[in-house]
Design a protein that fits this description.
The structure holds two protein chains of two kinds. Chain A is α/β, with parallel strands linked by helices. Chain A has ten helices and 24 strands. Classes of the chains: A alpha/beta, B alpha/beta.
């Protein structure tokens, strides 16, 4: 049986950060990485750009073989985790082999949700989570005349824009009343919607797909109001969730993801989890939330790695803060923090229709920033996130901050760091 | 061993917000007069206004070229990476997909959107010659290139024992290790009584504290013993560097006779003095290098005593009058300068007497916090309390770190406890002495060749 000091399941941002953190403190302990994916490490976030042709499959890799050699990492791709036995400190892989570990990190990410729509098993559809998905979607996109994107999250919207630009007639179907809900507010979503409509996309928000059936070109969708939409290309992008079948029988506590404490430790001894499969404390709620975003995966991966290596420099997780950036038709949108107005707090909004600049900022009762959202209004999202996480009281600076978030944020940040 | 890199340093106390750095950056990088494109951004505290610009009101947004860069970790496209050679965070425009996630990762506003291109932009330090730095008229921006020294030194053998018994915050360990690494293993070292053997150069329990032969002469005979050792090696045809690391007491007081004699004879030795302005190892007694007004255990503060009543002897100037092959003063606050002088002293010691006088603040004896040693050393130079210069018989004396706008000496005196009791008259005396000393050294420096 192969044994290793550190076994890491998964190969994207959380796993890579954990490797860095472990090697910062433990230069020698053996590290084995097992990953379901057949490729070298890459980011799911880059995939829409592979679809658009902005990037290419051979240029997306985040590490080369030299990295694994230099860091003494045994990297095993195409090697999925099948089951774990925390008491015995053993993991079983899909090929039936077993690996013994001293410490285990579960950074297995998430997979696309396939909604249980009647008929979905009889039609051909795409998802976009792996590099192979991206390659397949890119190939299909070239021939598509009428495409349907199911789900208006960032993955779906990215792909829809690519399809529009490739010349297809595109319909976006979204169950909730607005696009990009959960990322951007109504006004920002309205701007995004206008941009898509202006470029010829059709948008069906507030509708569910109740049935799917094969057609000569591909599939026919039946909406809840009786409308039908033909599709020669169907992309299902309604969200992701972790696949945790390998935890069956392990006794490790889960809700929507793997429950972890502020050092990313699971309910089992010597098992940690980070990234899109982990359910860690939310900064605003204080309760475990799914915050499946890239920046949080790196933070969690770092913490998990430090905890696994017993690095005394470990600082507990501050809690997950939503952070997103989004480019659409040459415009950009940035969202940091929570859109909800806390009790006793306030939201401030300004919208300049001429320039298309939109800004919404949310403050709590102590004049501390809790969220900031902009379209075509650039501010340093990393600085904003720090102001939120450090609970910086803006006091009399709030008005000026709202008028000039870029300059005021930089002023505050420069002083905070000194 | 990890690599150290050059860096751009910002001193907010000196920045008056003139914006020349931004003008230079926009012009060099984008051929544009639009300073919003500058990769270094200076922002005014309290927002833009027409009020007069005052130093201390300005803040900085600039890529820190982090050792542990968050922008790199959150880039999904592998477009950002730390360049192992020059330390710069490289941005690969061909791989970047313009997702702006790096701006979420960076907490310094060091990588931001350039609205003209719709892409991110960041400082690349202009290939090691940042255009912003020479454009800064106030000295608020400096390009710190000292890293080169540490990279070189890191690859040389450390010839002192690991772990030396110095006081917390003492810079003498830095001096000892750096100097001996530079001078190298073919060295015989003399360390007369003082802090250097106290810290462990002579070793413990029958083993030496160095990997080179070291001996512990009397305070009085360091230079003469070392001269004899050197001559014996020369006689048997072996090339070694004969080096002394002595304190100011061992050089300027009891050891002065042998020092002066060896310098006069032109003995081929390298004599380094660590001047902490007193007999600090034995309980902080005054020496002839202790400055006027300073508290020491033998110049106490009480009903009558107000610290030392005499001025310090200027030992390096006395050494200049021996016409040594090389004489220089140095400070650990200016390591490039110190290294330059160490190189020259080492070379000169093959031909004659080389004397290097290093001003070395003492956390314990001078009464300041252990973290502030280098800061105190820097203030001594910035106030002209000490001056950095070098002398050779061929080229005379010249300043290596002239100070254009010296700090009031009170700024230096306030940095430590040994001057806490000073009356305004005493401070005035010291300020006058600073001017007098400077005038004196300048006169020597100004001597024209054809007198």
């Amino acid at each position: 049986m192969h044994t290793t000091d550190y076994l890491i399941a998964g190969s994207s941002h959380a796993a890579l950060e954990a490797i860095n953190a472990i090697r910062m403190h433990d230069g020698e302990g053996s590290i084995t990485v097992v990953t379901r994916d057949p490729h070298r490490p890459y980011s799911p976030t880059v995939l829409p750009y592979v679809v658009s042709g902005r990037s290419t499959p051979e240029r997306v890799f985040l590490r080369d073989d030299d990295f694994f050699t230099a860091n003494k990492v045994d990297y095993r791709s195409g090697c999925a985790l099948a089951a774990i036995d925390p008491a015995a400190h053993q993991a079983r892989l899909a090929d039936g082999s077993t690996i013994g570990y001293r410490k285990l990190l579960l950074a297995t990410g998430a997979s696309p949700i396939v909604p249980p729509i009647p008929g979905i098993d009889r039609v051909d559809y795409h998802v976009l989570r792996t590099l192979d998905d991206a390659t397949r979607l890119r190939a299909a996109m070239a021939a598509s005349k009428s495409a349907v994107v199911l789900g208006a999250g960032l993955v779906g919207m990215h792909a829809a824009e690519n399809l529009v630009k490739a010349g297809a007639s595109v319909t976006i179907v979204e169950m909730s009343k607005q696009l990009t809900s959960g990322y951007f507010d109504e006004v920002a979503a309205g701007m995004i919607e206008q941009a898509f409509l202006g470029n010829g996309a059709k948008i069906r928000t507030g509708h569910r797909v109740v049935g799917l059936e094969p057609s000569a070109d591909g599939a026919t969708l039946h909406l809840d109001n009786g409308d039908t939409i033909p599709a020669d290309l169907l992309l299902v992008a309604v969200g992701v969730r972790p696949e945790l079948g390998y935890l069956d029988g392990s006794g490790i506590a889960t809700e929507r993801g793997i429950l972890v404490d502020d050092t990313m430790r699971t309910s089992a001894e010597d098992v940690w989890s980070a990234g899109d499969c982990a359910q860690a404390r939310g900064f605003f709620t204080g309760t475990p939330v799914m915050n499946a975003i890239l920046p949080d995966a790196t933070v969690q991966g770092r913490i998990a790695g430090m905890a696994m290596a017993d690095d005394p420099g470990l600082k507990p997780y501050p809690g997950g803060v939503p952070l997103n950036t989004y480019h659409f038709f040459g415009r950009h949108a940035i969202s940091v923090g929570s859109a909800a107005v806390p009790e006793g707090g306030r939201a401030q909004v300004r919208f300049d229709t001429a320039s298309g600049r939109y800004l919404r900022a949310v403050f709590d009762r102590d004049e501390r920033l809790t969220g900031i959202f902009g379209v075509n209004e650039f501010f340093d999202a990393g600085v904003m996130a720090q102001l939120i996480v450090r609970r910086t009281e803006l006091g009399p600076l709030r008005e000026r901050f709202f008028a000039q978030p870029l300059a005021t944020g930089r002023e505050l940040m420069s002083k905070l760091w000194r | 061993m990890g690599q150290a890199y050059s860096t751009i340093a910002f001193d907010p106390a000196k920045c008056d917000g003139c914006g020349q750095c931004m003008t230079a950056c926009s012009s060099v990088k984008f051929d544009s007069a639009d300073t919003t494109r500058s990769l270094i951004q200076i922002v005014r505290s309290g927002g833009d206004s027409d009020a007069p610009r005052l130093p201390g009101e300005f803040e900085l947004a600039l890529c820190r070229q982090c050792a542990d860069p968050k922008c790199v970790t959150v880039c999904p496209a592998g477009a950002l990476g730390k360049n192992g050679t020059n330390g710069v965070i490289d941005w690969d425009a061909s791989k970047c997909v313009d997702c702006l996630l790096c701006t979420i990762g960076c907490t310094y506003a060091g990588i931001a959107l350039d609205e003209h291109t719709g892409r991110v932009s960041k400082c690349d330090t202009c290939d090691g010659k940042p255009a912003c730095v020479p454009a800064c008229p106030t000295g608020a921006l400096r390009h710190i290139t000292t890293a080169r020294i540490y990279n070189d030194v890191g690859s040389w053998e450390d010839l002192f024992a690991p772990g030396l018994a110095g006081c917390q915050g003492c810079n003498t360990e830095l001096l000892m290790r750096h100097a001996l690494r530079r001078v190298g293993p073919d060295t015989v070292l003399a360390t007369p009584p003082g802090c250097v053997p106290g810290m462990g150069s002579v070793g413990f329990n029958g083993t030496t504290g160095t990997k080179v032969p070291v001996f512990h002469p009397l305070l009085t005979n360091t230079a003469s013993m070392l001269a004899g050792v050197k001559r014996q090696y020369e006689r048997v045809g072996r090339k070694v560097t004969a080096m002394a690391i002595a304190g100011d007491g061992g050089a300027s007081d009891v050891g002065f006779q042998s020092l002066s004699g060896a310098a006069e004879r032109g003995e081929r030795i390298l004599f380094m003095v660590v001047d902490n302005e007193g007999y600090m190892n034995t309980g902080m007694q005054r020496s002839s290098c202790t400055p006027y007004g300073a508290w020491t255990s033998t110049t106490p503060i009480g009903a009558h005593g107000r610290g030392k009543t005499q001025d310090a002897k200027n030992l390096p100037m006395i050494m200049v009058n021996h016409r040594c092959a090389y004489v220089a003063t140095a400070s650990t606050a200016y390591m490039e300068d110190l290294y330059d002088k160490l190189d020259k002293a080492l070379a000169a010691s093959e031909e004659g007497f080389a004397y290097l006088h290093v001003y070395s603040p003492c956390t314990t004896g001078w009464r300041f916090q252990s973290a502030l040693n280098i800061e105190v050393a820097r203030k001594a130079v910035e106030s002209n309390f000490v001056t950095l210069w070098e002398y050779t018989p061929e080229n005379g004396l010249h300043f290596t770190r002239p100070v254009d706008k010296p700090l009031p000496v009170a700024d230096y005196l306030k940095a430590m406890g040994r001057f806490r009791h000073l009356s305004p008259d005493q401070v005035e005396h010291i300020q006058k002495k600073v001017a007098e000393n400077l005038r004196f050294v300048k006169r020597i420096a100004e001597q024209p060749d054809e007198l």
